[in-house]
Amino acid sequence: SEKHKEGAWTSLFSCSFLSGAQSLGTCGRISMGGSYGGGYGCRIGGFGGGYGGGFGSIGGGVIGGGIGSFGGPVRGGPGFPGGIQPVQVDPTLLRPVHVDIDPQIQQVKCQEKEQIKTLNNQFASFIDKVRFLEQQNKVLSTKWELLQQQGPSGPRKNLDVIFENYIQNLRRRLESLLGQRGQLESELQNMRQYVEEYKTKYEEEINRRTAAENEFVVLKKDVDCAYMTKVELEAKVGALTDEINFLRYTGVGLAAHVDLEVRRQYEQIAQNSRAEAEAWYQSRYEELQNTAGRHGDSLRHTKIEIQELTRNVQRLRAEIENVKKQNHQLQAAIAEAEERGEMALKDARRKLEELECALSKDKEELARLLKEYQELLNIKIALDVEIAMYRKLLEGEENRLCVDNPSNVNVCEYLYTVFSAEWLLAWVS
Question: Does pTM surpass 0.85?
Answer without folding.
Answer: no
